[in-house]
Protein backbone atom coordinates (compact mmCIF):
# COMPACT_ATOMS: atom_id res chain seq x y z
CA UNK A 1 0.00 0.00 0.00
CA UNK A 2 3.08 2.26 -0.03
CA UNK A 3 2.24 3.28 -3.59
CA UNK A 4 0.17 6.24 -2.30
CA UNK A 5 2.70 7.36 0.30
CA UNK A 6 3.87 10.94 -0.23
CA UNK A 7 2.27 11.07 -3.71
CA UNK A 8 -0.65 13.48 -3.37
CA UNK A 9 -0.04 16.91 -1.84
CA UNK A 10 -2.12 17.28 1.34
CA UNK A 11 -3.84 20.47 0.08
CA UNK A 12 -5.05 18.44 -2.91
CA UNK A 13 -6.36 15.74 -0.55
CA UNK A 14 -8.16 18.46 1.42
CA UNK A 15 -9.62 19.93 -1.78
CA UNK A 16 -10.93 16.54 -2.93
CA UNK A 17 -12.36 15.92 0.55
CA UNK A 18 -14.09 19.33 0.47
CA UNK A 19 -15.49 18.57 -2.97
CA UNK A 20 -16.80 15.19 -1.80
CA UNK A 21 -18.34 16.85 1.25
CA UNK A 22 -20.16 19.29 -1.01
CA UNK A 23 -21.28 16.52 -3.40
CA UNK A 24 -22.71 14.31 -0.66
CA UNK A 25 -24.46 17.27 0.94
CA UNK A 26 -26.14 18.08 -2.38
CA UNK A 27 -26.88 14.45 -3.21
CA UNK A 28 -28.55 13.62 0.11
CA UNK A 29 -30.17 16.82 1.42
CA UNK A 30 -32.31 14.72 3.77
CA UNK A 31 -29.24 14.54 6.04
CA UNK A 32 -29.00 18.33 6.32
CA UNK A 33 -29.50 19.80 9.79
CA UNK A 34 -29.85 23.25 11.27
CA UNK A 35 -26.69 24.69 12.75
CA UNK A 36 -27.43 28.04 14.40
CA UNK A 37 -25.03 30.78 13.31
CA UNK A 38 -23.35 28.30 10.98
CA UNK A 39 -21.63 30.98 8.90
CA UNK A 40 -20.03 32.59 11.95
CA UNK A 41 -18.80 29.25 13.30
CA UNK A 42 -17.70 28.02 9.87
CA UNK A 43 -15.72 31.16 9.07
CA UNK A 44 -14.22 31.29 12.56
CA UNK A 45 -13.08 27.68 12.49
CA UNK A 46 -11.73 28.00 8.95
CA UNK A 47 -9.85 31.17 9.92
CA UNK A 48 -8.26 29.38 12.87
CA UNK A 49 -7.31 26.57 10.49
CA UNK A 50 -5.71 28.93 7.98
CA UNK A 51 -3.81 30.72 10.76
CA UNK A 52 -2.59 27.40 12.17
CA UNK A 53 -1.38 26.16 8.79
CA UNK A 54 0.30 29.47 7.93
CA UNK A 55 2.00 29.48 11.32
CA UNK A 56 3.48 26.08 10.50
CA UNK A 57 4.72 27.27 7.11
CA UNK A 58 6.23 30.45 8.56
CA UNK A 59 8.02 28.47 11.27
CA UNK A 60 9.48 26.09 8.67
CA UNK A 61 10.60 29.05 6.55
CA UNK A 62 12.28 30.68 9.57
CA UNK A 63 14.06 27.39 10.27
CA UNK A 64 15.12 27.32 6.59
CA UNK A 65 13.82 23.83 6.04
CA UNK A 66 11.60 22.43 3.32
CA UNK A 67 7.84 22.87 3.38
CA UNK A 68 7.43 20.34 0.56
CA UNK A 69 5.30 17.55 2.06
CA UNK A 70 6.29 15.15 -0.71
CA UNK A 71 10.02 15.29 0.17
CA UNK A 72 10.40 14.97 3.96
CA UNK A 73 13.86 13.50 3.49
CA UNK A 74 14.92 17.01 2.38
CA UNK A 75 14.37 18.41 5.88
CA UNK A 76 17.47 20.28 7.01
CA UNK A 77 16.45 20.77 10.63
CA UNK A 78 14.06 19.41 13.23
CA UNK A 79 11.56 22.17 13.96
CA UNK A 80 10.29 21.82 17.52
CA UNK A 81 9.51 25.41 18.51
CA UNK A 82 6.65 27.82 17.88
CA UNK A 83 3.41 26.12 16.90
CA UNK A 84 5.37 22.84 16.79
CA UNK A 85 5.36 22.78 20.60
CA UNK A 86 1.57 22.22 20.44
CA UNK A 87 1.20 19.94 17.41
CA UNK A 88 3.67 18.06 15.23
CA UNK A 89 1.53 18.73 12.17
CA UNK A 90 0.07 22.25 12.23
CA UNK A 91 -0.32 22.39 8.45
CA UNK A 92 -2.44 19.23 8.40
CA UNK A 93 -4.31 20.31 11.51
CA UNK A 94 -5.03 23.61 9.76
CA UNK A 95 -6.43 21.77 6.74
CA UNK A 96 -8.61 19.66 9.03
CA UNK A 97 -9.96 22.76 10.79
CA UNK A 98 -10.79 24.37 7.43
CA UNK A 99 -12.61 21.17 6.43
CA UNK A 100 -14.47 21.16 9.76
CA UNK A 101 -15.53 24.75 9.06
CA UNK A 102 -16.72 23.66 5.63
CA UNK A 103 -18.67 20.78 7.22
CA UNK A 104 -20.36 23.24 9.57
CA UNK A 105 -21.18 25.53 6.67
CA UNK A 106 -22.69 22.63 4.69
CA UNK A 107 -24.53 21.33 7.78
CA UNK A 108 -24.92 17.82 6.43
CA UNK A 109 -24.18 14.70 8.48
CA UNK A 110 -22.26 13.05 5.64
CA UNK A 111 -19.97 16.06 5.36
CA UNK A 112 -18.83 15.49 8.92
CA UNK A 113 -18.42 11.78 8.22
CA UNK A 114 -15.67 12.57 5.72
CA UNK A 115 -13.48 14.33 8.30
CA UNK A 116 -12.23 11.05 9.84
CA UNK A 117 -11.50 9.77 6.32
CA UNK A 118 -9.25 12.80 5.76
CA UNK A 119 -7.44 12.17 9.05
CA UNK A 120 -6.99 8.46 8.30
CA UNK A 121 -5.62 9.18 4.83
CA UNK A 122 -3.21 11.88 6.04
CA UNK A 123 -2.05 9.70 8.96
CA UNK A 124 -1.41 6.67 6.76
CA UNK A 125 -0.09 8.12 3.51
CA UNK A 126 1.50 11.38 4.64
CA UNK A 127 2.41 11.52 8.32
CA UNK A 128 3.63 7.94 8.78
CA UNK A 129 6.14 8.18 5.89
CA UNK A 130 7.20 11.64 7.06
CA UNK A 131 7.86 10.27 10.53
CA UNK A 132 9.96 7.43 9.07
CA UNK A 133 12.05 9.98 7.16
CA UNK A 134 12.44 12.25 10.19
CA UNK A 135 13.43 9.31 12.38
CA UNK A 136 16.06 8.40 9.82
CA UNK A 137 17.34 11.99 9.69
CA UNK A 138 17.12 13.05 13.34
CA UNK A 139 17.02 9.77 15.30
CA UNK A 140 16.72 10.21 19.07
CA UNK A 141 16.00 13.94 18.80
CA UNK A 142 12.88 13.19 16.75
CA UNK A 143 11.89 10.31 19.05
CA UNK A 144 12.14 12.64 22.05
CA UNK A 145 10.08 15.26 20.21
CA UNK A 146 7.43 12.65 19.38
CA UNK A 147 7.17 11.72 23.04
CA UNK A 148 6.62 15.38 24.04
CA UNK A 149 4.25 16.63 21.33
CA UNK A 150 1.13 14.94 20.00
CA UNK A 151 0.63 14.26 16.29
CA UNK A 152 -2.53 16.37 15.93
CA UNK A 153 -3.40 18.03 19.26
Fold and architecture overview:
- It is a single chain.
- The chain has four helices and no strands.
- It is an all-alpha fold and 153 residues long.
- It starts with 9 loop residues before the first helix and ends in a 5-residue tail after the last helix.
- It has one domain.
- The longest helix is centred in the last third of the chain and has 40 residues.
Kindly list the characteristics that best describe this protein:
65% helix, 153 residues, mainly alpha
Give a quick summary of the entry:
By secondary structure, this protein is mostly helical. It is about 65% helix and about 0% strand. It has one domain.
Number of domains: 1
Radius of gyration: 17 Å
Summed over residues and divided by their number, the pLDDT gives a mean of: 97
Strand content: under 5%
Helix content: 55-70%
State the assembly state of the protein chains: single chain
* Number of DSSP helical runs: 4
The termini sit apart by: 27 Å
Regions with little confidence, pLDDT below 50 for 5+ residues = none
Question: Given the helix and strand composition, which structural class is it?
Answer: mainly alpha
Amino acid sequence: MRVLELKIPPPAVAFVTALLMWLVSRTIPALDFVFPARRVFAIGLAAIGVATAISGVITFRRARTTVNPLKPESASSLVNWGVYTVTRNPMYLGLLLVLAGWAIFLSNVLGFALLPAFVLYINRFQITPEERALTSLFGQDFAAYQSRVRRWL
